Description:
Helix content is 69%, strand content 0%. Helix 5 runs parallel beside helix 8. The longest helix is centred in the middle third of the chain and has 27 residues. By secondary structure, it is an all-alpha fold.
Amino acid sequence: MTEVAPRRRGRPKKDAAPAPDDRVLAEALHEFAVHGYQGVSVRDLNRALGVSHNLLHQRFGSKEGVWYAAVDWGFGSLVAELTRADDATADPESRLRAMIRIFVSFSARNPDLQRLINSETGQASARLDYLIDTFVRPVLDVFTPLYSELVRSGRLREVPVHTFYYLITSGGGAPFGHNAMTQRLFGDAPFTAAEIERHARAVADLLIDGLRHPGA
């Protein structure tokens, strides 16, 4: 699986400011995920971070620049983790199971990623294009051939790829993207490390074993 190098878009030149730290980008990602792009201002971000009013302008140039930097930081980490764990020499089913488990586990530890996706995918925009082209499609381009190979070999039954994709991404990550509801219904148990791992394995097993072709 080839690691994706996110495009630099809407950000300052390298010599314009020192590299931002994780706290700045994590807080920015959280604000955009919770309030949506239109609901956040650079002033809001500065206030949330407790920094001077011109810090983010100096580092990123604009709210758009902050958004792209935060997205690169958050989604780039997800793609990097999927990339590191993928063994191109392994059996397609093992690779697919691993991708599902890692995606779900990462989503549980980083729920703002799903929240941000939810806020951006309702309408077309340059930001959505960036998310899809830089992070989503490269992963889908690895995932889809693995699933197709298992269908061709008769090991899995065929369902629409988009069905499989959304059951993983929206279904698998739902308890953590909707954490307030999950806590109201089930308490804090789903958020323990052991339960996250159990949930990730259950999602992979239910999807793959549920599609296993009779007699395979």
